Amino acid sequence: MSTLTQGRKAYAERRWPDAVGQYTEADQAEGLPASDVEQLATSLILTGGAAEGVDLLARAHLSYLADGDYPAAARCAVWTGMNLIMQGEPARSAGWMARAHRIVEDLPEPCRFEGLLLVPAGLGALYSGDGAAAAKAFTRAADLGRARGDADSAALGVLGLGQAKIMLGDLDDGLALLDEAMVAVTVGEISPVPAGIIYCAVIETCHLAFDLRRAHEWTRALDKWCDAQPNLVAFSGQCQMHRAALYRLHGAWSEAIAAAKTAQDLAFRGDRMATYGGFYEQGEIQRLRGDFDAAEASYRHAQETGFPPQPGLALLRLAQGKPEQAQTLLRQTMAGIDPGYRRLMLAARVEIELAAGDSDAARTAMKELAALCATIDMPMLHALAEQAQATVLTHDGDPAAALVLLRRAWSRWLSLDAPFEAACCRALLASLCAVLGDEESARLEREAARATFAELGAAPALAGLTPDSVPARANDAIRPAAHPHTAHPHAAHDADTTVAGALTARETEVVQLVSAGLTNRDIAVELFISEKTVARHLSNIFTKLGLTSRAAATAYAYQHGLV
Question: Could you give all domains of the chain from N- to C-terminal order, each with its CATH number?
Fold first, then answer.
């Protein structure tokens, strides 16, 4: 088998380092045709050699022109421009996009890859907050891709249209379009680079829509996609960044730190898009643990990417006893940020404005957060809104009304398997019960919160947990957060909190995975939780169902139609 043939085989099997080695050897020996140069470029980009890969894409473009294959030359020009955007070189990117447009315009026949030309325009409109213009561009890209048989432009168009619809408030249609784009990826219709782009964009958009179920599902799918491609660098760092966010959300803070550090390493090796998330997520855990100097450094590293590390940095200032600085930081950021990211900061805004003494601003942010629930019907958003309302009502001196909302929020965090947020609710519940004269309930809530804070290592929250002064954080789940506790005696669970009788939704998932033969470690990886949390879930399951073994739990799952 010739070296060139081995390179093509390695590329087809997605063994990217082998493809780079074989193609490079063949190129040095006898040169490569344009299509193989393009595949060598792609292999380099995927293994972290973005700069060299872009240079080879330019070479492939020129080779296609020399061969008279103008549509392929246009495609190469577009992807050269797209990769330059990801490398932070907008001027060079614009030049390559202009070249691609000129080639397509000069063709006597319709170009198969014309839809790709509309993707950058759609992205520009999306990033500037013009959802209508973005929807128009991406619709055209998808239509051209389907009509002319280019799966990449069709899928990227569907992805962008979904993002635009979510921006415009059409959540259900937008999320359905994201799922449609992902189907094209998972069935293998899409080229490697656009497939990675779609994975990461879908997960990010799910977080912006507070859709944790989809975020979990597609992060796990991305995880498996990356694992199936040895030595993949591009997109792998972003995968670890998303893993870190989910681990943090579910209280697996050590695992979150490990994933964040892996994301940073992969960012250094070439996946630049993972830089922000790798450092931001690390900073979040450091802040929650009380390591403020380390958190400061992590947030500063994240800020070097050009995106503000908020609300984390503002919450750090609040934790340092500087509410006015926190207020200024968050106000400045929210004044000029994309609406999708702005809404992730509203809960923190409520807390910070109250701490800084501006109750009117806090109330305005709380109302904006509550209004979002009418268009984004997601448990996490409802929990944040209810917790924010309870915090404002507590400040306004209405503990009875705050108590009702806070119990509802606690129930939602419980169903989302969010230990820190649930504990914060219980801490504030303790304070409210004490104000209302229910000292026994106050003691029970305070002890439950203290146990969770201690287990997580949440030193600042633990230190603030006193009978008369309790932290009320309705925001640490944010950014783009989660571990069940014993049921509150007065809490009314949401309809979706329990299934199969006594089991919560998370416990049902654990039973299903046990019945599939997964170990505790496998289950922890699948659900982005710690092994300790898996063991606790199993203990709760065995107690609730009167079982004593995994085999008995498996039998229960089959008898009750859970698998």
Answer: 3-247 (1.25.40.10), 312-463 (1.25.40.10), 498-559 (1.10.10.10)
User: How many CA atoms are closer than 13 Å to the CA of 401, on its beta-carbon side?
Assistant: 11
- Half-sphere exposure (Cβ direction) of 332: Cα atoms closer than 13 Å: 12
Can you tell me the distance from the alpha carbon of 281 to that of 22, in angstroms, rounded to the nearest whole number?
38
Which DSSP state fits 398?
A: -
User: Is residue 128 classed exposed, middle or buried when 0-12, 13-18 and 19+ CB atoms within 10 A define those classes?
Assistant: exposed
Asked if 442 and 426 count as a contact pair (C-beta separation under 8 A), the reply is no
SS3 459: helix
Kind and range of the H or E run holding 503:
strand 503-504
Burial of 400 (0-12, 13-18, 19+ CB in 10 A): exposed
| Under 8 Å between Cβ of 281 and 295 | no
User: Cβ-count burial of 330 within 10 angstroms (0-12 exposed, 13-18 middle, 19+ buried)?
Assistant: buried
Please give the Cα distance from 551 to 548 (Å, whole number).
9
Peptide bond between residue 230 and the one before it cis (omega within 30 degrees of 0): no
Maximum alpha-carbon separation in the chain: 86
pLDDT along the chain (563 residues), means of 10: 94 96 95 96 96 95 96 96 89 95 94 95 90 96 96 97 93 95 93 95 94 94 93 96 96 97 96 96 98 98 95 98 97 90 95 97 97 93 97 96 96 94 96 94 96 96 72 48 34 40 84 93 92 92 90 90 83
